[in-house]
Amino acid sequence: MSLSIPNLDVDLSELEGKKFTCYEECGLCCLCQAEVLPEEVPFFKKNYPKNIVQKTEPHRHTALALKNKEGPCIFLAPNRRCTIYQNRPHYCRQFPFHIYAGERVQMELDLSCRGVWGNSGEDALVVGANMVSDHLEELREYLPQSQAVYRDFVNNCKEAGTYKSPELLRKKFKEKIPLMMNLQYLAKILDLSSDDEEMELPEGVEGREYSKKELEISAMETGVESLIAEDIYSAPVYCDPRNRWNVFMAEDDEIEWAVMGDDGVLTPAGKIDPQKVPLLAPEGDGIQVFLDYLNTLNNRDSSMGYAYYLVDDYGYEDYVANAYYGMMATAALDVLWRASLIAHINEWKLDASGMREGIIAYDMDRLDAPTIGAFL
């Protein structure tokens, strides 16, 4: 669905057919350090001066303080209720909806939030449309800026001879999504994406056959790399069905697994040898859950923006097609391995429930990837 608003192209298709409710006992959103907008700063300086901090990354801004400096929000009560709920910042009010500005405005939904996986609550499409309507002035201001960045990117690519339209890339990838269940096919994409020539998605898995061990090692390396973090605050967090905040950090040849308490203190839960995590395949209804997620990633403008970021970062030497297809194949491997890790520690399989848990453990990290656009 697109909103018809003068001078504003808005895509809400990711919200169609979804409902949203807040499971207060989850508290996942309270682990994201909320930015305080300039117009909100005076209230917090007056009423809670000791509970805000100044940040310099990714830009200079004011944010709510965290318990133990790396834990949940300072305003989170022991019963996981917000003590300033009526005055919470805009950032908190918007979660799990993300407004992305690129060549257009697109609303994306954080699938790490358990509240978006049920069949009850508010209509996500209505909530998203209202958010857009409430911020038309800001969106009309920022969209031309992001569009200018995209135009510069396209011009640079065309000058380098590496451009291909996002519409064509998405169309071609969508046609091949059913093949993404096959690890041989994903490995073939990754090999082709690293070539110097512009790639086309292969028609099938014909050609070199990779051993099961090669595929498992490739998936493990991809998955472990996504668990490397500079500190606990930037490490992946998975809120499980028991509402425990599980933190995973790859260090040396092990994965450190800990559970964060409401006070921000970490309790070690064990060490995991990634080589002993079997790479599982989705089964039953889990297959469709996995394929639907790849379709969601393919439709997200932030996914395309990440591929564009990679091309820009590499100095426009790589073809956009190679960057995009390689990034999507990597994401497919990554979510499969993350789902396998979660299934491994819980003795699950990747049926619909197990695959969903893997996406819950992964999607927030996917949305945190760098991009040439901007989340507003």
- Counted by DSSP, the helix tally is 11
Rg value: 21 Å
Helix content range: 40-55%
Distance between the termini: 20 Å
Strand-residue proportion: 15-25%
* Number of discrete domains: 2
Low-confidence parts: none
Which structural traits does this protein have?
376 residues; 2 domains; alpha+beta; single chain; 11 helices; five-stranded mixed β-sheet; four-stranded antiparallel β-sheet
Protein described:
There is one protein chain. The protein has 376 residues and is of the alpha+beta class. It has two domains: 2-140, no CATH class; 163-370, no CATH class. 41% of the residues lie in helices and 15% in strands. The chain has eleven helices and 14 strands. The protein has helices at 41-47, 90-94, 124-134, 136-160, 166-176, 183-193, 212-225, 286-299, 301-313, 320-346, 352-367, and strands at residues 2-5, 8-11, 19-20, 35-36, 52-55, 61-64, 97-101, 105-109, 122-123, 237-239, 245-251, 254-260, 266-272, 374-375. Strands 1-2-8-7-14 form a five-stranded mixed sheet, with helices on one face. Helix 8 runs antiparallel to helix 10, helix 8 (286-299) packs parallel to helix 11 and helix 9 packs across helix 10. The model has no long low-confidence stretch (mean pLDDT 92).
